């Protein structure tokens, strides 16, 4: 007795308007193959055929607990969205937005049409830039306290004075970096149509042990203003014990829900959404993306 293979599912990376040309050569998604464009009633879904053995609801719940798998999937997802940014202004969807088949993708587009259209109009011709301001730890450390324990009352007092100077130096350097960050954010905001300030990143997570993050912001910038935006960042980069980091241009992940607050998606539990995914019918509720029931 033979078992009929389960048909592949549809992984949806993003939604965009129709655009001329094709995806950049070499664009590959989570399967290692180029995605395809599914046109439907004035919208385009960027989709990939993925194995049900990994992406159906039950297996996907288990996969989302595998950090290596999750990281590789996120990289493939972001690579496709980044390639789209070179040719259009995409609306990124949540990681692990999966539909049963092409009909399910069309239903997803139909049910989310109003939100998709508003968001795409808002993002058209705009990209996201990221700016981080760091206080350099070498600038915050102050005079180095000699190794070893102090001896005697004089040594003890001198040791405490040095420790206080170190603490004061760290606090002063952080205040200076925060002031630079506030001023830079205000000036950059003049170039942006929207901003998003994220929590500072922990240096233990970024791998940058030599700096303390004091500003972690994203800016939605019209493409025609990008040159001035980048030049302004360059004016203050790496000065006064402060390191400024510029990333982008990116698809507008931080502003994907700008037209309307994202509604809860349906499907398996997963990571924080990168954008709104409209509710899909015939599936259990959860924050991991839209999952269609069988047609």
From TrEMBL:
Record flagged with keyword Chaperone: no
Bias (Low complexity) ranges: 262-284
Gene Ontology terms: cellular component: gas vesicle
Residue ranges of the region described as Disordered: 138-157, 262-295
Signal sequence, renumbered to the chain: none
Principal location listed in the UniProt entry: other
Cross-referenced InterPro entries: GvpL/GvpF
Any GO BP: gas vesicle organization
Compartmental location: Gas vesicle
Chain intervals with Gly residues compositional bias: 285-295
UniProt keyword list: Gas vesicle
Protein origin, superkingdom: Bacteria
Family to which the UniProt record says this protein belongs: Belongs to the gas vesicle GvpF/GvpL family.
Protein name, as recorded: Gas vesicle synthesis protein GvpL/GvpF
């Amino acid at each position: 007795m033979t078992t009929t293979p389960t048909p592949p599912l549809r992984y949806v990376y993003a939604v965009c308007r129709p655009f001329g040309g094709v995806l950049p050569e070499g664009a590959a998604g989570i399967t290692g193959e180029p995605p395809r464009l599914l046109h439907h009633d004035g919208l385009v879904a960027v989709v990939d055929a993925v194995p049900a053995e990994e992406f159906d609801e039950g297996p996907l719940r288990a996969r989302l607990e595998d950090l290596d798998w999750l990281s590789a999937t996120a990289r493939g997802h972001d690579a496709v969205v980044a390639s789209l940014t070179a040719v259009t202004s995409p609306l990124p969807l949540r990681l692990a937005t999966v539909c049963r088949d092409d009909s399910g993708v069309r239903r997803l587009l139909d049910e989310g049409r109003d939100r998709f259209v508003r968001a795409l109009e808002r993002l058209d011709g705009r990209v996201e830039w990221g700016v981080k301001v760091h206080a350099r730890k070498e600038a915050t450390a102050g005079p180095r306290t000699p190794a070893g324990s102090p001896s005697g009352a004089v040594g003890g007092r001198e040791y405490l004075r040095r420790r206080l100077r170190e603490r004061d130096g760290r606090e002063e350097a952080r205040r200076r970096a925060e002031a630079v960050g506030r001023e830079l954010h205000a000036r950059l905001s003049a170039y942006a149509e929207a901003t998003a300030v994220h929590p500072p990143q922990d240096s233990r997570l970024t791998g940058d042990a030599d700096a303390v993050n004091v500003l972690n912001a994203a800016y939605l910038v019209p493409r025609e203003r990008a040159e001035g935006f980048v030049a302004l960042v360059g004016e203050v980069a790496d000065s006064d014990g402060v390191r400024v980091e510029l990333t982008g241009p990116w698809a507008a992940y931080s502003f994907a829900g700008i037209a309307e607050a994202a509604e809860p998606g349906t499907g398996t539990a997963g990571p924080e959404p990168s954008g709104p995914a409209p509710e899909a019918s015939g599936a259990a509720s959860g924050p991991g993306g839209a999952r269609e029931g069988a047609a």
